[in-house]
Amino acid sequence: MEIYADNAATTKMSRTAIEAMLPYMEDIYGNPSSLYSAGQRARAALEDARERVAAAIGAEPREIYFTSGGSEADNQAILSAAEAGEKKGKKHIISTAFEHHAVLHTLKKLEKRGFEITLLDVHESGVIDPGQVKDAIREDTCLVTVMSANNEIGTIQPISDIGKICREAGVTFHTDAVQAAGHINIDVRAQNVDMLSLSAHKFHGPKGCGVLYASKKVRLSNLIEGGAQERGKRAGTENVPAIMGTAAALEEACGNLEAYAEKLIPLRNRLIEGLERIPYSELNGDRTRRLPGNVNFCFEGIEGESLLLLLDDRGISASSGSACTSGSLDPSHVLLAIGRPHEVAHGSLRLTIDAGITEEEIDYIVSSVTDVVGYLRSISPFWHDLECGKREHVFKN
Amino acid sequence: MEKQYHMYSEKVMDHFRNPRNVGEIENADGVGEAGNPVCGDIMKIFLKIENDIITDVKFQTFGCGSAIASSSMATELIKGKPVSEALKLTNKAVTEALDGLPAHKLHCSVLAEEAIKKALKDYYDKNGIEYDEDLFPECEDCEHCVR
Prior knowledge:
The complex is a heterodimer of chains A (397) and B (147).
Chain A: E1 3-4, H1 15-21, H2 23-26, H3 37-57, E2 64-67, H4 70-87, E3 92-96, H5 101-112, E4 116-120, H6 130-136, E5 141-145, H7 159-169, E6 172-176, E7 195-199, E8 210-214, H8 240-254, H9 257-276, E9 281-283, E10 294-299, H10 304-313, E11 316-317, H11 323-326, H12 333-337, H13 342-345, E12 348-352, H14 359-378, H15 381-387
Parallel strand pairs in A: 1-11, 3-4, 3-5, 5-6, 6-7
Antiparallel strand pairs in A: 2-8, 7-8, 9-10, 10-12
Helix pairs in contact in A: 1-8, 3-8, 4-5, 6-7, 9-14, 10-14
Chain B: H1 10-17, E1 30-36, E2 41-50, E3 53-62, H2 65-78, H3 83-86, H4 91-97, H5 106-126
Antiparallel strand pairs in B: 1-2, 2-3
């Protein structure tokens, strides 16, 4: 059996998205900036895509900027707000401890430039309380950036409530919605979001294409200088085929959100319940306030990379927050942020499923993980120490 | 043709999938453990030694693919060898026997060398055999866990 359970890493492109792209590689390949009709046809398509993306998230077309992906959109959003803040002497930014590195590393860079960064605690649940944002806002706060849903543990943040608080305080609010877009409802107007980042390949669109939504009240700074594309805020000839694929994929995903959740949530819960039967295992992040397709567990006494390799041998593609899979010495900053000790965080497994999965496949994943965890524990001296009481368990049986 | 890419050599994957000498030895003549759970890898080596020859060796490992493969290969390299020869085992020899390890995984072979040396030291200690302390570097000498 071949089961792709790493949809938070990337997704298979939808047929609709592929077909939306093809004409713009084969026939309508003109440069949208060109005056002749071949260019203007591409321009018309580009603006049509912009309108459709805007409609899918409740924005206006002129508030949509196409980028190379989620990371670029995050960088541009944060650096723009910081630059605008700096001009008014406001150099304080609020974020959370478990943001994506595209956000955290940008904030680190700003810290070196004299900005003060407050990273909010995300609790064991992996969900922040809007009151934390309210309490952290100061006179000199220029930006609040909180992800819509976490990329590892899938927990969904109270974006509307945070948006309301920021609006009342007059602080710009950005959300990294890379994991949320196309998976849960987004309405930037209703949720009081000033800036939002999304990435097409997370919802069955093409890789290398993202969107920065920036409210018309926000002043953007350029990351890339050059031509006047994207209202002069993002130079470079537009990737028209990818943009067409992005619009088609987002439209398709957003038009199907209810059915998607209805189908996927029971399967996700079946997977959670199955894995919970493994002794000394625990779900990471809140049980219900999480993305429909996200399951993330820690298993005591084993290491994540060896678990992934053995699952791969059984046809299952998954991911882990263990240090060994990241190439660094520390396990996932997300798992550490929700309070998992290092030794437990090394034994993590993220399964991100898509609506195409069947109950049989879920059961196959559960039995495979149960077998592999059992085997790895049988050869683990750490597990033997836990079993004979030489070391103490972190989880209950 | 699609080019196959894997971060590990076929030898590493073979020793990872089918580890040799897994298990423990009751009343072992020497036991050594290296690493710690915070760093994400622990190796434990059990030795049976008769007339100065390692007649049996077993291991248990908590760790990534290369940690399991390194332990397996290290046990193969010392099985049936005299203690004096096992003492000369280096992490480089383990890595070479595995057809190489990715740079960020080299510490796994260091851990295997260390666990074996600790087991040999334990054997010397248990039997009151004198030895040169310098033969047995401490875990702290490795930079892997330095934060």
